[in-house]
Amino acid sequence: MKKQPEVTDKTRQRFVDAFWKLAEKKPVSKITVSELTRLAGYNRSTFYEYFLDTFDLLSYVEDRLIENVKQVALQTLQSDKSPKDFFRTIFMSMNEEIYLLTGPNGDSGFIEKVSKELSPYVSGYLPIRDDVENFDYLVSFVNSAMLGMLKHWYEKNKDLTAEEMSEMMQRLMLNGALGYIQANSSPENNRNA
């Protein structure tokens, strides 16, 4: 007899939830099937009905996170929002789970996966033409900066509000670091003035 889709989804989600709880405490590469099954309340054979191994589960959660961010990016792109709103919306869609995967206990390849998947969306919102020399480097810079700022924000225990953080990020993305510094310094504090 086949399992009902609701039961299958619920069981899979319990393994995912167990993965996130463990990822808060230890490197994702050190999470074991035994820990996952104990925390999820299932046996090993049930785990293997859903995933090949812990790396398969890791790939599953990464793909889901990336797909969620891509959906937000696509919806924002289709809504004709300004670049300012685009970067704010993308940032606000990223959550603590993304930090867990980009942080010190995360997956070193995750940032590359996210950057690759977001590149087409980010490139559509940069206020320059895509035939500019080294355009791919600019897109890579924006993706890395967004993820790096998100990671730093979590490491500082979200010392800025989400709105302050997204505002800073979008201003940096659209004006560059020098533009941001100049806009936020008084003439007497600005060494380049």
Task: Give a structural overview.
By secondary structure, this protein is an all-alpha fold. The protein has helices spanning 5-23, 33-40, 44-50, 54-78, 83-93, 96-102, 110-125, 135-155, 162-183. The relative contact order is 0.09. The model is unreliable at 189-193 (pLDDT under 50).
| Secondary structural class | mainly alpha
Tell the overall outline: elongated
Question: What level of helicity do the residues show?
Answer: over 70%
Quickly count the helices: 9
Give the overall average pLDDT: 83
Query: Rg from C-alpha positions?
Result: 20 Å
Q: Note the main sheet.
A: none
Sequence of secondary-structure elements: HHHHHHHHH
Find the count of extended strands (DSSP E, 2+ residues).
0
- Weakly predicted, low-confidence segments: 189-193
End-to-end gap: 75 Å
Please report which band the strand proportion falls in: under 5%, 5-15%, 15-25%, 25-35%, 35-45% or over 45%.
Answer: under 5%
Secondary structure blueprint with pairings:
Elements: H1 5-23, H2 33-40, H3 44-50, H4 54-78, H5 83-93, H6 96-102, H7 110-125, H8 135-155, H9 162-183
Helix pairs in contact: 1-2, 4-5, 4-7, 5-9, 6-8, 7-8
